Amino acid sequence: MMTEPLVLHVIHHLRMGGMENGLVNLINHMPPGRFRHAIACVEDYSEFRDRLEGKVEVIAMERSRIGQWGLRKEIYRLCRRLRPVIMHARGLSGLDALLPALLAGVRHRVQGEHGWDVHDLHGKSARSIWLRRLHAPLVERYVTVSKHLERYLIDDIGISPKRITQIYNGVDTDRFRPRLGERPSVLPRTFVDSESIVVGTVGRAQPVKDQATLVRAFAELVRRPGGSGLRLVVVGAGPLLDELRRLAKSLGVDEQTWFTGAADQVSEFLQTFDIFVLPSLAEGISNTILEAMATGLPIVATNVGGNVELVENGVTGSLFAPGDVATLSRLLASYAADASVRAERATAARRVAVDRFGLTTMVDRYQLMYEQLCAG
Q1: Phi/psi at 224 (nearest 5 deg)?
Q2: Left if phi > 0, otherwise alpha if psi is -120 to 50, otherwise beta: which for 16?
Q3: What are phi and psi of 160, to 5 degrees?
Q4: Which H or E run contains 110?
Q5: Which of 126, 211, 350, 376 is deepest in the core (most CB within 10 A)?
Q6: Which CATH class, in words, describes the domain spanning 197-356?
Q7: Domain 6-170+358-375 is of which CATH architecture?
Q8: Mean pLDDT value of segment 157-179
Q9: More confident residue, 190 or 97
Q10: Contact present, 315 and 347 (Cβ < 8 Å)
Q11: Maximum C-alpha span of the chain
Q12: pTM to 2 decimals?
C-alpha cells in the first residue's frame, strides 16, 4: 500500500496572521489522498492550529529557547523521523531549515517569500540579502505570493526566473461574501445605526500595519460636515492596541471608534463595513484585502508591495502613499459622500476576487507544483 508523499511546512509560528491563514487554507482544501502534511513551527503555535482539518502534526521547535543551532539539530531529527518528500519553508526564519533538510535527505526544498516586516520594509537590509543569497544553493524552487516579490528575488538576490513560481493567495469566496440585508450583530448596538457609514480595517496591531495613520485620517474626516455619522472599526489584537486606543481618545474620536481586540468572526466583521482600509507600510499579498474584496467592499490601501497587484485604482478602490494622512482622509470623504461609487467599486472588487483570486485556483497551483517536484 502506497503512502502519500509528505510535505513538511516550516513557518515561524502558527498564530493568527495572513501567511498562517494561507497555509491552513492550503492544507484544508488540498484534495485528499494526494499529499500528507506536517507543520514545524520555528517558535510555537496557538489555538489557531485548531483550524486545521484532518491529521496534521504540528511541532513547536522553540528556537528562542534552544537557539539557532539547536533548531537546526531538531529540524534534522524531525526530517529523519518524518521522511518528508518536500520541505516547504516560509520567510526568513525558514532558511534555517534548509541545510538540515538537505543533510537529512529531503529530496525537494521549497522556499516561500511572503513579504517583510517593519524592521526591513523592502527586504533591502544587507543581512536579509546576504542570508537569502547564502541559502540560495539549498533551494530547488522558490514560491512568491506576488510579482513584486518575484522581481525582488531576480533583481536583488540573483535568482533565475526558471527557479521561481509565482502563486497569488486565494480567498474563500463562499465564506467571504457580500452581506444581505442588515449588518451582522457583532458590533455594539449603540455604536451604529442604519444611517451610519462604517470604515474598517482588519490586522494585527503592530507597527508594519500602521493603523495609527487610519485613526488620524478618520479624526480629520469626522471634523468635516456630516462626520457625526461615521464610525471606525479596528479588528485585531497586538502590542500596539492600547497605544491606538489612547491615540483615538487624544484625537477626540474614541466614541466613534471601536477596537475589537482579538476576534475570530472576521467574515462577519467585514460584512459590517462600508469601506475597507489597509494602511500598511509593507505587504506581500494581503489576505485581508482579498477577503474584503470577496465581501464586496471598496478598498482603500497603501501603494506598497502586492497591494498594487490586487487593487485597481479607480476600479476596485483607491491607493495612497504610506503614512499620508491627508490623502487617506480625502479618499474616505469621497467614498463616504457617494454611495453609488461605493457600490460600483464594491461590485467590481467582488467580481475580481471570484474571477482571479478564488481559493481553488491557489490550491490547484500549489498541488501542481508539488506534483511536478515529486515527478522530477
Answers
A1: -75, 160
A2: beta
A3: -65, 135
A4: strand 108-113
A5: 211
A6: alpha beta
A7: 3-Layer(aba) Sandwich (3.40)
A8: 96
A9: 97
A10: no
A11: 72
A12: 0.89
